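Quick log. Single chain, no ligands specified.
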Amino acid sequence: MNTKYNYLFILSLFSLALFVLLAKTYNSGFVEYMDIQAINSIQRLEQANITIVMKFFSYIGDTIRVIFISIIMLLILYKVFHQRVELILFIIVLIGSTTFNVLLKNFFQRERPNILRMIIEDGYSFPSGHTMAALSLYGIISFLMWRHIPKQSGRILLICLSALFILAIGISRIYLGAHYPSDVVGAYLISGFWLMFTIWGFINVKERIFRKERVTLKRV
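-> predicted structure:
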């Protein structure tokens, strides 16, 4: 399929390849060493105010809050911006990301870290569910809202806020001791793959439909 967005397909495959590489090496001595060093560096910043901020970002990355934010965004996209086909993309991205996370966690069954855990979490560790949800949610919001923001400054603000939430939620999971850094990196990679791949597929489908409609109109 010829489209100027084919770079998204290439980047998605590259992200998937890096995830596979990490998934095969996350229990190696090198990755474990890097995990411990990163955990120590981040948790060395521990202060009461920082902990409050980290718990806030971890809180809004929880499943219930993600569902709540998603419902609000669905209503905004439908009622305010009258996007209907785009709602399908929104739902596919989030459901797909959640499904990937559940399947991957149960496949790898990695235990959570025991280093200075400030919060207690159930379930397996790799990849981070909060981080996957954050990248999928705020990534697809940015994509769908971009064309509805007329000013360049508004678009830059949208990207900056999305990046802030995505990064802060991932870092909060390490800071609070809920995940290894490799869990968070793996989540960024696999969620990034899914987000870019679905957006690429969505754009291709829309372009194909547009071409067919244009050919039909010419024949009429």
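The longest helix spans residues 181-219.
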